[in-house]
Design a protein that fits this description.
mainly alpha
């Protein structure tokens, strides 16, 4: 008789836990059915707003047309930031660029050259700029987006460089 009662009590406890868990499962299901779509909608709106006010495929078009006219195919252009590469290449696929898509590749290829490029783009380079561009990067031209004021100041401080092109987007 005790055994039977224990079984009955055990069954009641299991049934009670199942019901409690069922409520938990229903709550979790409802929670995720509301929260996940809300997160997706929020992130989609944020991405749309960020991309909607960002660059267009026409950014740097005039500057790259000028570069294409002045440089021979295959010449290297030192540019101010790796994230400009897709637009630069889209506008002018005849040149070579220092860093594109992911600067990690430039670092892995040659850490010293990468560090030199970083110092140039951040305006902290202290060496001979003209000589470095020619000997290290094999470049005779630099592209500086207007939002890179420190790099612009660096080039302005060196008399061996002159602004041959300037618009509201780049030098």
């Amino acid at each position: 008789y005790v055994r039977s009662r224990s079984r009955h009590a055990l069954f009641e406890n299991v049934a009670r836990l199942f019901c409690q868990r069922r409520i938990v499962h229903l709550f979790l299901l409802a929670y995720f059915m509301v929260i996940i779509p809300a997160i997706v909608v929020r992130d989609a709106k944020k991405t749309y707003n960020e991309l909607g006010s960002g660059w267009t495929t026409q950014n740097f078009a005039a500057a790259m047309t000028f570069v294409q006219q002045k440089l021979t195919p295959g010449e290297v252009v030192v540019h101010s930031d790796w994230d400009e590469f897709p637009l630069l290449f889209y506008q002018n696929d005849r040149q070579h660029y220092v860093a594109g898509l992911d600067p990690t590749f430039a670092y892995l290829r040659d850490a010293d050259t990468y560090q030199t490029w970083v110092e140039i783009t951040t305006g902290t380079f202290t060496g001979e700029l003209g000589k470095t561009l020619i000997t290290v990067f094999h470049a005779r031209a630099a592209f500086v987006a207007k939002d890179h004021a420190n790099m612009m100041k660096l080039f302005d401080r060196h008399s061996d460089f002159s602004r041959v092109y300037e618009d509201d987007e780049a030098i």
